[in-house]
Write a structure and sequence with these properties.
Elements (H helix, E strand, L loop, with lengths): L2 H6 L3 E5 L3 H13 L3 E5 L2 H11 L3 E5 L7 H10 L8 E6 L6 H6 L4 E5 L3 H19 L11 E3 L2 E4 L4 E4 L2 E3 L3 H12 L4 E3 H9 L7 H15 L9 E4 L3 E4 L5
Parallel strand pairs: 1-2, 1-3, 3-4, 4-5
Antiparallel strand pairs: 6-7, 7-8, 8-9, 10-12, 11-12
Helix pairs in contact: 3-4, 7-8, 7-9, 8-9
The structure holds calcium ion (CA).
Length: 246
């Protein structure tokens, strides 16, 4: 990764901790890694900061003045603007930190004090990497070429689909879905990719929408929709158009 890319991706990390030594130590190491770092020493100010600046990740201590870290976590998760920010919880060994509770409240990771700074930085890096992968736009091929596979022919420009010489009437979404699957035949497309490309992040749409439309699509193109030969379900991931081997 070159310097320019790093600059573009400079991430803001909010440290919520009232122990100054820890804040200093963490800030030093995270800044050295190229992150922007901000800190707040109490829960209420941390919430205000998070809503205003939308940090990319929050390191959240449990023991805080005014409002404890678990309450901060709960409020971050229930606010739409901060609901998805990754949270790493810090907890002292002598605190009765219920890890399950922390994770139930929506924390993504946790570390017990005293922690190794190297380990903490590594975990933050990993969390941000996951975030980036998630945020990357789907890379799926699109083409205006006529596609013909296994007896299905798709004409992108005419918006037509012919299955074994029979014209099939598809809705716009079904057509886009089939087009993407055929253009990427043999590759698994995740539900998120399909959602991104076909629904373009329309509101009120979730990944189950993809399943529903695949079901409709199968009813229109598969000889036996219960035993699909064209669109394969890849359990827990998404869908794949089986390559025509004939
Ligand atoms: Ca503390």
């Amino acid at each position: 990764m070159n310097t320019n890319q790093e600059k573009l991706k400079q991430r803001l990390i909010l440290i919520v901790e009232d122990e100054e030594d820890i804040v200093k130590l963490l800030s030093f190491h995270l800044e050295k890694e190229g992150y922007l770092v901000a800190s707040r020493g109490n829960g209420r100010e941390a919430l205000e900061f998070a809503q205003e600046k939308k940090p990319d990740l929050i390191v959240l201590d449990i023991m805080l003045p005014e409002m404890d870290g678990l309450e901060v976590c709960r409020r971050l998760r229930s606010n739409q603007q901060t609901a998805s920010v990754p949270i790493l919880i810090l907890s002292a060994r002598n605190e009765e930190f219920d890890k399950v509770l922390g994770l139930e409240l929506g924390a993504d990771d946790y570390m017990i004090k005293p922690f190794s700074v190297r380990e903490l930085v590594a975990r933050i890096r990993a969390m941000l990497r996951r975030l980036e992968q998630h945020q990357q736009p789907a890379k799926v091929m699109e083409t205006e070429e006529i596609l013909s596979l296994g007896g299905i022919t798709l004409y992108p420009e005419q918006h037509r689909v012919v299955v074994r010489d029979e014209e099939r009437v598809l809705t716009h979404k079904e057509f886009l879905l089939l087009h993407l699957l055929m253009a990427n035949a043999g590759k698994v497309l995740t539900r998120e990719m399909l959602l991104d490309k076909v629904w373009n992040y329309e509101v009120e749409v979730d990944t189950r929408t993809v399943d529903v439309h695949v079901r409709y699509l199968r009813q229109k193109i598969e000889p036996d929709p219960a035993n699909p030969i064209f669109i394969e379900t890849v359990r827990g991931v998404g869908y794949k158009f089986k390559v025509d081997r004939g």
